[in-house]
Amino acid sequence: MIINKLQQEQNRKVAAELIDEEKMKTIKILVAIALLPLMAVCQKTLTLQPGPGDGKDALVHELQSERNVNYGDNPQFAAMAWTFQGDPGVIRSLIDFDLREIPEGPEIISAKLSFYAIDKQTADNGLGRHSELSGDNSWLILRITEQWEENSVKWNNKPATTNDGAIEMPGTSSPDKNYKDIDVTEMVKKKLEEPSTSHGFMIRLKNENYYRRINFASSDNENASRRPKLVIVYKCPAPEPNFSYSGDGLKVSFTNETKDADSFQWDFGDGNTSGSENPQHTYASHGEYTVKLTVRNDCGEKEISKNIRVSCTFPAPNFTVSIDALTVHFKNQSKNADSYHWAFGDGNSSTSENPSHTYSDASGYTVVLTAKNECGEALKSKVINLSCPSPDADFDYSTNGLKVTFNNRSERSKSFSWDFGDGNSSDDSSPTYTYSSPGTYTVELTAENDCGKDTHTRKIEIEAVGISETQINMAGFSIIPNPASHTAMFEFDADFGKDAHISLFSIDGKEVMHRLINQQRNVQVNLNGLPAGTYICVIMDGEEIKGKEKLVVK
Prior knowledge:
Radius of gyration: 52 Å
Number of helices: 4
Shape: elongated
Number of strands: 39
Mean pLDDT: 88
């Protein structure tokens, strides 16, 4: 209405004094002043009418038997004084709304609270409808000053309230009266300004002498349209932009610190932009840039500019080496690098961070490491001199019957090859080998590394079992009879393992009989089929010789 009158006045002035330029300027100024309130203030409306999942309200019952009962899910929201089976009792109700959607520091224009009468069916099955049976049912809305929880509040732990700013509501004789648009602006302001001492509203009767009642639908009521509703209108300021940033070389991470903005526009000062809230941007080169952030919401837009310096640290390449004959292990110690290139000085290269390289010859090589990042590249070179001594092959050995244990004493070798002189071989470092028969064998060990190989040869004597040493004393070991013709009984007092056995060898070292002892102390052996002559009887427990004895077969 004010704007229309101003516009009419302006039109009259324009028509009457069109040729007067000074007065024309005055008209333009007046128009701008009239329109200014429309542009400077933006209002937003927040409507809250929560349901069972997000609502917070409860009844508390003063009746002795109900004082420790929680009614956080009751579909009724009542203030009443009545008798219950002859006992008087008072009911009050509490409600709170979640105002976190409202930005900080708002100017609250209005806050209107509405309660809707309980429907007849729910009332008939519950606490009843509005009633002035014994007198006026005027009621109060009080501000709750202590915290409370919907699922645990009871009469005995109900929160404190204050009469400061209390609202008195007139009573009604109508059982289905709705109380709409109750002005609770000051209470809502208090809740936003002092959240630690403002925790919603409590309704109670002004006069809590029975019989009188006010009963509304709660947020747990099935009828969503009848649940308590709070409508808040507030001024919405344009967002105040701000941001911070951190750099990693040419890459800069921007962090938006603006509150209550709906959209963002970044100008990075190098011709590039972004609409992300917290963007990252990589500049093409180091230098100083003016970054501008423009933020918007329903109430307007604002911008902020900051000068940032983008610095770029060049890589600092360095490395160490460890040499193993012709193989060199490189350990990268570069700083501020993203990628690497190694030139090993023999025509080969690698892009690994910590490579190993085997050269073909012992010589001097110039190794060049190139380290790169977004700022550029830098080089580091070192000369490495390789010497490659050949291995020195050597071994010794020990025998136990036909079994030989070889002890490798070679130096500077990576691999080994054994030739046992009987057509068999091994590539173990220090093998154990059992020959099939006694004799003289030429054993050859070949040791090899990147620089060459060396061979060591030894002749070893493997003696026939029992020929050089006809007897090993073992208490209680005897052969009865001896000489024997058809059978012989082997008797001994010692205990042996499950793999212990008797082996009978001819005088030339060939095994002619093998018989398990089976952990017995008396073993009868059948000698039929053996030519007459002298034999060596050997008691073996695993690979260990426990005893030897001559046996003459007639």
